[in-house]
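hey so u asked for the seq, here:
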Amino acid sequence: MPRQPSLFSELDGDPPRAGGRSRGDASDALAERFERLRQVAAALPPGVRLGTSSWSFPGWRGLVYSGKRTATQLARDGLREYARHPLLGTVGVDRSYYARVPDEDFRRYAEQLPDGFPCCCKAPARVTSALKPERGPAEPNPDFLSADRFMDDLLEPAGRALRAHTGPFILQFPPMLRRSGLDRAAFIEGLDRFLGELPRDFQYAVEVRDRTLLGPDYAQVLSRHGAAHVYNAWTAMPQPGEQTAHVPLDAMPFLMVRLLLRPGATYQEQREAFAPFDRLVAPDEQMRDQVVDLVGRAVARAIPAYVLVNNKAEGSSPLTIEALAARLATCGLRPSLPRGPEGPR
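ran it, structure tokens below
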């Protein structure tokens, strides 16, 4: 794919620093940035949604947010401003992985979002971890791959309070085979049963973090139940594009990409190196190339494409998204889907 021309080149970098600026000046600078980004958004093919893994980062002031606010304030009320960003058309809800989200919190999210804006909620760890997720001695998890628990803890609350904004639910399975002693064939069989018990009026995306789980039998289970594979950039996985050799994109009902960590990195070391997540620290051109290629193939197949970016991928997920969008806007992808709920605003 060709590189972006000079029109978009200034987006592939850090924002201007707001030090010494008045609040009005900082707001004006963000408005100017958004105006440039609207040109990029207008050139994106419909059906492509870019977003971040979460949204409560004060370091995004000048990138996403205009004012100085705490992480707690942003977690509660930041989605309204997040959704005004020209390129941010979806968002990950990571907190549902750690604990049940109260209905009132889901309702508050929904009230802040425009029509057609989907949230990608992560399934609870108590459903996707073969071992009990609580700290302490490693013990088998009796709720592992429990469809009833998943429905009680997430699908039903989200269906009640967030229904108009439910995008694909992400089933993130942590590395498990070595620690839990779980047999690969048993996992594939359990996943098959689990997906078969879930309601079909939602979409599901399965993210595995054991590369040995990738293969034709895994891909067949996803296809049988209309689920998608998450092409993830994560420390112990092949790069996203390389995963298509094991899980072909042609069989997916939609594309889900999650950019999390470079190979060999850990969350802790990346957090320490990248905080406060206001600049690109480690741009990964190979990863970007593969994402652009995957999105291009999804557009050619006229299937929706979701790309969720974590700060730990390159240092600042909004800036990674800007760089990806600039590439996508100039690589000649032809619109294949009608503009509407699945297209960029």
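The CA atoms of residues 87 and 318 lie 9 Å apart. Residues 23-43 form the longest helix (21 residues).
lmk if thats what u needed
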